[in-house]
Amino acid sequence: KVSAVSTRNTSIQTGCSTRTGTNSAEVTRIMRPSRIDLLAAAPLAIPGVMMGMALIFVYLTIDWLPIYGTIWIIVLAFTAEYLPFGSRAMNGVMSQLHPELEEAARMSGATPSRVLRKILLPIFLPAAMAVWLWVFAHALRALSAPVMLQGRDNIVLSTLLWGYWNSGEPTIAAAIGIWLIAILTLATIGW
Fold this sequence. Notes:
Layout: H1 2-30, H2 33-41, H3 48-61, H4 71-96, H5 99-107, H6 112-141, H7 144-149, H8 157-166, H9 170-190
Helix pairs in contact: 1-2, 1-4, 1-6, 3-4, 4-6, 5-6, 6-9, 8-9
């Protein structure tokens, strides 16, 4: 049960990181690219341990948003940690989405939903899936921020493996390592 919950938690974190990177790339396409890119790349300079400590400090002092000890604090950490990668990968895709593509389809009588389905998604979806897979593979093995932020209800696979290894149960830790490899292999093959 714990492994299934851990895998689900990592999937939630990956989805949030991918979506935030996509949003950042869309904002970059619309607004001034240099400033938005600079803000999106800022987390590269912050180590995972520092990110974890900063989130602990912030969310222990904010009483009206009780996310410390939940999966959402790890989602925030991973979203901040992987935002630069998702943003840079999606910027290339967003630069291919010229407004003329949408305008030509609209002038030909296509509805907005048809423009999205037939023009935008075929260009956008493969890159979004590649970003999701890349972030998933890295989030699955990330340890520094999750170990700082983990609680009883927000265990991810990497902290579960670390916990078993640290408590002197290497056979269970090895089984979880095999589980990690199997999940990554299935995700990669499925891609």
